[in-house]
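Hey there, shall we discuss this one?
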Amino acid sequence: MAPCAWPPGRVLDLTRLLPGPLAGKLLADLGFPVLKVEPPRGDPLRDWAPEAYRFLNGKKEILTLDLKRGEDRERFLALVPEAAILLEANRPGVMERLGLGPEVLLGINPHLVYARLRGYPDAPDPGHDLTYLAEAGLLGRFPWRSFQFADLAGAYALALTALKGLLLGGGVYEVALSEAVKAMAYPPIPFLDGSALCYGIYPTREGEVALAALEPHFWARFCEESGLRELLPSAFDPARPGLPPYERLLAFFQGRTAQEWEAWAKEKGIPLRAVRG
C-alpha cells in the first residue's frame, strides 16, 4: 500500500463522559487534530472529574455549539467537508432528529467515517459500564469494580473501527459497548487472580508491591536475589494466610518500603512494581 498524507483530516468528537472521549484521545495520540464539540452545558465529566476530563481532552480543541439551534447546526455542517472521522455516542435517532444523521453528513462528505458508539447493538436500552460488565459475566471476576473495563474496551474498539473506516474509504460504522467488552470475557486463567505465591500484591513497610514473577526464570531470580531459595518449589503454592511460604513472603516484604523494593527489583531485573494510586 502506498503511503498517504497523515493525518488525512480532522476528527469531530461529539462524545461525552469516558469511552467516546477516550477514543478521541487515542486518535489525537496518533496525530489527528481533534475538535470536541460540546453542548452549552458542557461535558458533565468536566465537573464530576476535572483531572479525568483534562486527561481525555487535553489535546483537543473545544468548540461549544447548541446543535438544536439552526445557526450552530450550520456552523457544524461547515466543518464536515474537511473532516476525516466523526465520533458520536448519542441514543439511536438523536443525530437524525438533529438533521445530522449519516445520510446528511455523507452527502456532504462521502469519505467521512461516521463512527457511532452504542450501548447495545440492536436495542435502545440505557446502560453504563457497570451494566455491560454485569451482563458479560465479568463483575464477579474483578475485585476492583471501580475500573471501567467496558468503557475502555469500547473506546479502543471505536478508535480501531474509525481507522478501519478510513482504509475502506468512509461510511457508517457502529460499535456496541456491550459487545466490545465481551472480547475481555475470556475464560479465567489460573493463578492470575493473585491466588498464587509468585503473582500477587504484598504489603510492605510502607505501601504495597505487585509481584509478577510468573515465568520460572523470573521466580528463580527472585528467590535467588531475595535469599529465599527455599521458596523455589513454591511458586504456585496458595497465597493464603497461615501457610508457611506465604507468611515467609509477607515477612520478607516488611523489610523495606514499596518504593525501595521497586528500586531493588529494577536493579535485579525482577517484575515487581510499587502499587500507586
Summary: The first strand starts at residue 10 and ends at 13. The chain has twelve helices and nine strands. The beta strands are 10-13, 34-38, 61-64, 83-88, 113-118, 171-176, 199-203, 208-212, 272-274.
